[in-house]
Amino acid sequence: MKKGFYITIKDNFFNENILKKLQDKLPTLNYSSQYNAIKNINHIWFSCPAEEDIKDIIKNKCEKIWNKKFKIRFCSYTMLATVEPVVHCDLSEECDHQIIIYIKGNTNLHKGTGFYLNNELNTHIGFNENRAVFWHSNTMHSPLNWAADDKSKRYSIICQMKEIK
Known about the structure:
Radius of gyration: 15 Å
Helix content: 10-25%
Shape: globular
Strand order of the largest sheet: 1-7-4-9-3-2
Distance between the termini: 21 Å
């Protein structure tokens, strides 16, 4: 595993119309624990596959912002309310970059994502609606709900991608 990491944050990722539609839609979806499971880790979130138009918007924006070409491994709406840290890495043959876009929830430093370096929490990225956090999949990370006094749900979109070279 590489030492160090890079993280890119982009606020106001979606335009306001798309964000509003997603904020209205995500709490009404039927989420399942069948998608996005992490091998050997108890499931920490529930998900629902995103539609092709949302996948395309995310992929196109990522390609433009980071000047790279990507193939999507998966893209899902997620609902998370975990209360324990689940530090993991998603690097695989099919995934070397990923993005989470926070859609709906209480704004809080401890409702976002934590990034780990040498098995220690190194960087907090707080939850703000319409914030996108993009990183290389070799980076150890965990949802931060466990650190928040407020254990309410957060709704996000996660997308794992493979860079096309």
